[in-house]
Amino acid sequence: MGSDERTYLTDFVVEELQKRGHEVIKVGALATNKVEPWPLVGEEVARLVAEKKAEEGVLFCWTGTGVCIAANKVPGIKAALCFDAETARGARLWDHANILVMSLRLTSPVVAKEILDSWFNTPYDPKEKPVVDLLDEIERRSGMRREVAVNP
Fold it and tell me: So what's the pLDDT on residue 28?
């Protein structure tokens, strides 16, 4: 989980994830307690997921847009900016998203909890795999690396 700044919301989500039994790897301001560049935070969380050092990721920045863009630059990542539970459900069900992104500005703890409930309770729909696989094809056509090298 990463954010460019540490806030009440990020602390709440860390605690909520831990309550649900998830191991939380803190990135960016959550690890350093100082403001960090959002592109690097987005990339670091995305690499952890792409390199299979984390099963999924959660990211925050003021709007959520910046870290979402940064994360989606890493091959194999499908980061989804979610403002409500229904968007999170769709991101999992149809898009097979592997990084949840939320806005620090617009997300309350109550809404964050609803988003987390939906995210973790919605499985990928296997019928959507052929469509989601088109993302891999787009990555190949654009010259993005298909596989991310795992650092020793």
Answer: 98
SS3 74: coil
Say whether 28 sits in a helix, a strand or coil. Answer: strand
2-141 to CATH, choices 3.40.1400.10, 3.40.50.970, 3.30.565.10, 3.40.50.1100:
3.40.1400.10
The mean per-residue pLDDT over the stretch 104-109 comes to: 98
Domain ranges of the chain: 2-141
Catalytic annotation, pick one of 13, 14, 30, 61: 61
Please give the helix or strand (H or E) that residue 101 lies within, else none. strand 99-103
pLDDT in tens, 65-80: 999 999 999 999 999 9
Q: How confident is the model at residue 142 (pLDDT cuts 50, 70, 90)?
A: confident
Number of residues in the chain: 152
- Which residue, 64, 66, 59, is CA-closest to 106? 64
Q: Give the integer Cα–Cα distance in Å for 91 and 79.
A: 9
Q: Is 68 a catalytic residue?
A: no
- In the chain, what percentage of residues exceed pLDDT 70? 95
